[in-house]
Amino acid sequence: MASAPRAPLYLGLDLSTQQLKAVVIDGELRVVHQSGVQFDAELHEFRTQGGVHIHADRLTVTSPVLMWVKALDLLLDKMKRAGLDFSRVRALSGSGQQHGSVFWRRGASETLKHLDPDQDLHQLLQDSFSVSDSPVWMDSSSTQQCEDLQAAAGGALRLAEITGSRAYERFTGNQIAKLHQTRAEEFQDTERISLVSSFAASLFLGGYAAIDYSDGSGMNLLDIRTRNWSEICLQATAPHLDQLLGAPLPSTSVLGPVSSYFVHRYGFSESCSVVAFTGDNPASLAGMRLQPGDVAVSLGTSDTVFLWLQQPRPALEGHVFCNPVEQQEYMALLCFKNGSLTRERVRNECAGASWELFSTALSDTPLGNHGNIGFYFETMEITPPVIGVHRFDSADCEVSSLSPQVEVRAVVEGQFLSRRLHAERLGYSIIPGTRVLATGGASSNKEILQVLSDVFNAPVYTIDLSDSTCLGSAYRALHGLVAESRASFFDVVKKAPEPRLVATPHPKAKEVYDKLLKRYALLEERVVQKSHS
Ligand SMILES: Nc1ncnc2c1ncn2[C@@H]1O[C@H](COP(=O)(O)OP(=O)(O)O)[C@@H](O)[C@H]1O
Ligand SMILES: O=C(CO)[C@@H](O)[C@H](O)COP(=O)(O)O
């Protein structure tokens, strides 16, 4: 049934690595509009590849902040042209790729307050950033700062106990420390530091938006138990950081009404609420309505695996974040940098640049790939921290190449064996009743999901939209309006369609992959040792 012409709508956005996307739902949780802007294709003047610039050292990875602003101009224009009635949007929220940082120049808060609705945002904000190229999650150039932070906190495990993670190069605190040490002038000229998520929220608010607890957990700065900035971490990172970051807030907070710029330029209602934005993985947890016991596998630019956690048990591998929908709880996350872009590279080389041929290669090759195993760490991996491509035959001998079809299966099996191995090390076990919930761009590929189901030996489910982050943001917008009255997230979204079963494991899957997983673990150790020798 279509929604009534004036019924309220809820807008969810996602500012991810390769694109800016939007989903609009009605009060019955039906998707009524979807739109997106691809950075490489639609904003080619910024010359990004996969939404980023990889610098000459191969470690520094940034995105132009004005590209993100211009993408918002384009997206809202597209939505307006498509006839979306913004005046019906009762609340909006959003998400951003995690860990990336935006440095606002002194005076930017005044500019944000007085935006002229006759001009584009990217024109109005062109002088508002002290750093024009924002460090993003793919950056791995802050190793020294990570070592310094761990030393200051009393070791890697102690830091993990406070912030949920040992020090990681892409985590925002280490990026801020690097900027402070290497670009003192730009740092001095900075009035506020946002995450990608709180930066996008600031545009809508017309003022600086708070960092939410969940995305704030990806900075190596937040104490995930007290939900305040950790004094030890702030001190070890940069001076006056509490002022530069502002106070963190619950992820369900209503930050205020949308700014008058959006009211006049796009026809938003003055009472449309902006609900705190969060990280894309936390938003995805909301979009899939993940429950304790489920495991989510996101196949976006990065591959991530995440779980709902009741109690934090931080370790040296993986991350614990504050939960985005249930304030007292947590989520665990593993991130793998060599995800979709690595599959794309193998597709281009071995399957004529076609996903269809890539899928055929998966269907035409047997479970276990005749014992061949591949590691495809084309850029410095996060889990485990290794770079290099290694292929092994069934006798564990390293070989220099595989046939194209075998290579296709090797990349997908290798990636999923790694996801399972590290999820199990995090304490996860596949038991009867386990649901693997798949999302992200590659979750539209049935053959890839079949391999996922076989390797995990569990049924795989998807939601109708491959983009659970935007949907999660729209759900969070709706929930934000009633969260203060203690309404639970799951009550608010109980009418959402249930995930659909898309793949069940082959009867031989357990036998094949239990054995292969043991071999994979030993070979991974060999690869790690080789790369460190
Ligand atoms: N049919 C397909 N099979 C496998 N992968 C796909 C398919 N369609 C899209 N993808 C992958 O999805 C990726 C984008 O995923 P998405 O979740 O939208 O990214 P992000 O949110 O990180 O920008 C692309 O890089 C592409 O490799
Ligand atoms: O670094 C992480 C999570 O810790 C990444 O998952 C980023 O959040 C980027 O997300 P995508 O653009 O790949 O969805």
Helix content: 25-40%
Give the second-level CATH assignment, the architecture of the largest domain.
2-Layer Sandwich
CATH homologous superfamily grouping of the largest domain? ATPase, nucleotide binding domain
What is the CA-CA span between the terminal residues? 63 Å
Please tally the helical runs, counting DSSP H or I stretches of 4 or more residues: 21
- Overall spatial form: globular
Bound small-molecule species: adenosine-5'-diphosphate, 5-O-phosphono-D-xylulose
- What would you call the structural class? alpha+beta
Number of domains: 2
Instruction: Give the overall pLDDT as a whole number.
Output: 96
Rg, rounded, reads 22 Å
Low-pLDDT regions:
none
% residues in beta strands: 15-25%
Largest sheet: 7 strands, mixed
Strands, total number:
24
CATH class of the largest domain, named: Alpha Beta
User: CATH fold name of the largest domain, please?
Assistant: Nucleotidyltransferase, domain 5
Keywords: ATP-binding, Carbohydrate metabolism, Kinase, Nucleotide-binding, Transferase, Xylose metabolism
Domain Carbohydrate kinase FGGY N-terminal: 136-287
Family: Belongs to the FGGY kinase family.
InterPro entries: ATPase_NBD (IPR043129), Carb_kinase_FGGY (IPR000577), D-XK_euk (IPR042024), FGGY_C (IPR018485), FGGY_N (IPR018484)
